[in-house]
Amino acid sequence: MSRKRWPKTVLVTGVVVLAGGGVSVAALGLGGDGDTTAATHSAQLPSATGEISRSDLAASKLVAGELGYGDPVTVSGRLPGTVTWLPEPGSTVGRGDTLYKVDNQPVTLMYGTVPMYRDLVPGTEGPDVEQLNDNLRALGYDAPDGDGYTARTAAALREFQKKRGVKTTGELKNGQAAFASSGLIRVAALEAAVGDPANGRILRHTSREKRVRAELDVGDQGLAKKGAFVGVILPDGTTVTGKVSTVRTVSPPKDDAAQQGGGGEKPQTEVEVEIEIPDQKKLKGLDAATVDVKFISATAQKAMSVPVTALVALPDDGGYAVQVVEGGGRTRTVPVTLGLFAQGRVEITGKGLREGMRVGVPK
Questions:
Q1: Is residue 2 part of a domain?
Q2: Which domain holds residue 218?
Q3: Do the domain assignments include residue 193?
Q4: Closest by Cα among 141, 197, 146, 134 to 168
Q5: pTM
Q6: I need a surface site. Which of 106, 120, 264, 320 has the fewest CB within 10 A?
Q7: pLDDT mean across residues, the chain
């Protein structure tokens, strides 16, 4: 099988140098034939040596990201009346808590993806009713499991209303509750003031937990898989573990594409990635910051490797080798097959090579 070769332009005095000093990935099979007989000879010993070691290698790609609370969601009031109480910006509100008050009556926060758009009364059915039942059960009330507003739903709601100190109707009027898809929320900003009409924009909220958003080129989409772990490098240089929670493709607006029809550069589709940070304590004091996200692009398990600078070019495009340093002032030039490049090292295979051997490297 033919093997690809590195161009000779990357060779300096017989030593392979990675352009820019960065991390890259070489396809398995690069280099010379591992079965070629090694040359043993006396020679001037190299000025320095490195070790052949065996460990897991991981090649990575750094991508800029933004740490924050995510995009804010606006809550608009649907009740007639006057805003009489608002939460403080930065405060958190959970399921069953008061989000704001209208005419001194609480508007309750509940969790769910379907916004409230109608009165929920006995006999109604649908996903919004199912959300109400789910929330009542989560709050400890005997609501049914399903999307129907039954007598049990009404009885559970009356108990909840009694505990809240409001009129026990067994019905939920449009606007008496607001549903948040993120769960526990953080009040980001107020849109209304106490005394304003209650049927306008009231406030904006975000998730309580900080997260990272990064954008990848479409060609790098394979780096971001939902559930994959990544490293997030904070401004002070420390690294925290992140987990990819959302991956979505973002296409340029049609208007932008149309504007580029005159021969300009075509807008690029991108991949937007959201990353959860399980250990939020490590983000203390950081509300917003630019960070680096380390995506793992390739791995090699228990790979035998040497420092990249240990590679020597063989003559006549013969691939690459390492100079093994032995006792008695002798060296051996052993042809190697190259694998993954990562962390300043390169995976190798070659006849007679084993972990712990010393190889020549430039000083």
A1: no
A2: 62-69+210-297
A3: yes
A4: 141
A5: 0.64
A6: 264
A7: 85
